Amino acid sequence: MRIPIEITKINKGKTVGKGKLSKKHLRKVFEFCSVFDLANVDQDSDYIFDVRGEVIHWLNKDDKEICSSLYFDDANGSIKIELGDGANWTGDFALKKWKDVIKQAIEGGY
Question: pLDDT exceeding 70 applies to what percent of the chain?
């Protein structure tokens, strides 16, 4: 089953995108990223995240700097994607990477 992932591109400060996901899908993304949390994974992992209450930081594998962050609000299902300070990611690249992770989390059965 294909799940549409609607994220609107925004270029306002560090914010590069906003969107909505159902509570069920937000939970799947949170669970998926928790598997790759900094406290749980080794350096060879595909991803390294810093998973917190209402934010997931995507970390650079080499220096653990924040590449991008996904902020979410469980109450209304909104998400916001921001660029981090420590990486050379562009807004378009961050949106693509987060869409890929969201799709993998939702369709991957997490």
Answer: 93
The answer to whether residue 85 scores a pLDDT higher than 60 is: yes
Query: What crossing angle do the helices spanning 23-35 and 91-107 adopt, rounded to 10°?
Result: 100
Contact between residue 66 and residue 85 where contact means Cβ atoms under 8 Å apart: yes
Question: Average pLDDT of 73-93?
Answer: 89
Q: What angle do CA 21, 25, 30 make, to 5 degrees?
A: 110
- Separation CA 52–CA 76 (nearest Å): 18
The structure tokens listed for 51 are: 């998973």
Q: Are 7 and 79 in contact (CB under 8 A)?
A: yes
Quick check: 83 and 98 in contact, CB under 8 A? no
Q: What is the largest CA-CA distance in the chain?
A: 37
**Whole-prediction pTM:** 0.89
Is the distance from CB of 85 to CB of 13 less than 8 angstroms? Answer: no
